[in-house]
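Field: sequence (string)
Field: structure_tokens (string)

Example rows 1 and 2, in order.
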Amino acid sequence: MHRIEAEQDDVLATLQLVRGDEPLESRLYEQLVDLLVEGMFVELRQQHLSGDLPREAYVDELTALADLCRGAGLLPLPSREA
């Protein structure tokens, strides 16, 4: 989660620097949305692993989130290259 938050901060800071460059702004906004979606999934997983979210509730919430993201055209997320 710390990596995702750091990347979000970097994208937000970079957006301020490229204001007016529409293609670059657009790409950065897409990256920010991807990071926000990834963060939601990671946060759900962390809640489950910490015991704050029982398995059945985790599966239900994970399914609902995935369905909402698919419906909005936000899944699948682009894969990361190592």
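Row 2 begins here:
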Amino acid sequence: MYKTTLTIGLYDKDTCRQEISSESAKNIVTAAVLRSGVYGATVWDCRGIYTMQSTGEIVEEPSIRVEFCDDFQRDISGLVADLKARLNQESIMVERAISNVSFL
């Protein structure tokens, strides 16, 4: 299976502070992931460290991680673009791996 993990910081790219609450952001992310056709995902809170491309400033920010698996390597460019726009992000970290996943 193909496992994809997205890490999404919650600091706004323009203000460098959190403009959308963590709970609202989780709802936005969950809805977008489900709209993308993924049949299941795990979503959790975490903290991230990121160097802002626009300013070079290093920020520690509340973040959301999303993990989902598919039998094929899904095109997630639309999902990532949608989340970047809705959450006003410079970037979203995308990790893709072939993984031995089973549901027992």
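free_text_note (row 2): Residues 22-35 form the longest helix (14 residues).
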